[in-house]
User: Fold this.
Amino acid sequence: MAEQNTEAKLKNLLKQEKIQLWNLPYTDDDNQPGQQHMQELAERYAPVVCLSSLEVGGALESIRALAVKRGKGNTMYRETRVATLELLLPRQSKKDPKMKDYLETKLDVLIQEVVDRIGEEYGLKHIKLILNGKTLSVDQRLDEQGVKNHSKVMVLRVTDDELKQQISVEEEAKKKDDKQKESIQRTQKGFQILSERDGSEDPENKPFLEIADQKGNPLKIPPKEKKALMLAMGFHEKGRSLMKRKEYDDALCHLLQADEQFGMCRSALLGSVDNYAVLQLDIVWCYRALEALSCLEDGRRRLDKAEDCFLQCYGEQQQRLLMIKGNTGREEVLFLRLYLLQSLLSYIEGNDAQATLKLEKVESLYSRLCLDSGKMAQLMALGFSEKDARLGLRACEGDLQEAAIHISNRRQERDELKQREKQRRRKRVDDISTLTELGYSRSDAVSALHHADGDVDRAYGILLDSSQATQENNCNTEWPVASQEKVDQLLYLGFEREAAEAALGLTGGDVQSATQLLLDNQGVISSDLLSSSPPSCSSSSASSERPSTSSKSAEDNELVNEVLEDISHHEEDYLDETLEEESELIQTMKTYLSRGHSHTV
Assistant:
């Protein structure tokens, strides 16, 4: 990091004086350094950057050598179309920590070919390539995804070091890759299921997700956009869960998936919730943890996005946040991390003054956010969780009594919100039941209520207008005759004869599957099911190819439960930071900015 800071400062000085180190007299005809002129330049710049002439000379030679290499690369690319890429490798995979790593390749080749070459040369079992925060697809060409001559490509490891000896390297790499792909696919599928639930299934037990404002009130969002936002938030939660376990490679993969989903939402919506800003911070925090801050351009762009989003969401002086929540103490941890990352990037860019200014803001926030362990213990002795104690003290600027009252009030607000939500869901279930009792299918009832904004009378009017078409669909359906014994079994359980016969027809006469189908649909077989699954002359063979409703429902619930494990039950979990990692980085920054560095990171 110190070397990057020094080189950035020297580059600025060279640019101001229009000195080109790759030309005479600093580079001779054999591309070797002009020793005398390089030494004179080092002695002149040493007092400006507060370093010894020896250190400055080494940094200038590094800049010169890189410029010469870049010039050669440009010539080679013009003549042969072979590009030079800079590889940002995992630290443990670098052959020489002080040297940059390059790869020469044509740009019209598949990413997979480049992945294989890097894996073979650096002994990496399986990797992903990242360019400007986007994962490169292995089945596309380099030039199709924006890779250019001199692009910086981040190499991200996605395999475990713990390999079983009986499994070959190739099989283990494929296994890990498949596992990560499956993880992402299962996460996506689980949140898709949740995004399609509207809270009308079971107000007590069946989980669903609602997108709410900062007070917990549900937001009305168009279905397509809601689905993208739900997936984005789901991938983000999974990524944060992995970050807590310090699995930064996998975390970054999920966070970048979240970023893609957020990209499908309107900018106005992104400005009304702080999730998008927090995601940008988390991505850059992963860059830092993976020592990939050479991705300066992408990191700076993301931090600028985060700051703009916080401004829109919270207000100029956080006045909107103050008005909504009554305090701003908990959100200050986000600004601490934002300013700390900005300080780090400014330092790497060679702007010590800006880095120092940002770090001063960080230390001011840190002193306010560091909590008294005695007060934490007292609150926890009262029965409050560590998380609530920490958030409460920060919200109340360390005031113990105020924090206790605040936490109690927040608990009461959460309980009241949950009760209102349960009541809202119960009413929706009752409204759906009212409409289904009038003979309409459950799916039609749900759709009508959605279009009527929950007004059951208006929904009934909508259904009346479309009832004739529904009746025609039902009249055209003829089911194979089920055995009277099976029908009687369903009648004994309390289902209507027409619904029982239809369910048996759909499930090929399987009583257990028919029972589950009726239970899942509140005893009504909707027109959607009738029209999408017409009866067949060979209904028994058709049923063997159709998974039972109960197994499908079990699979869905398994996926949902899996993704729900990564969702915090506390709505302010993203604000609960112990600040241990931040403290370490603050000390590192202070060491570097004190100008006493003759060491590396």
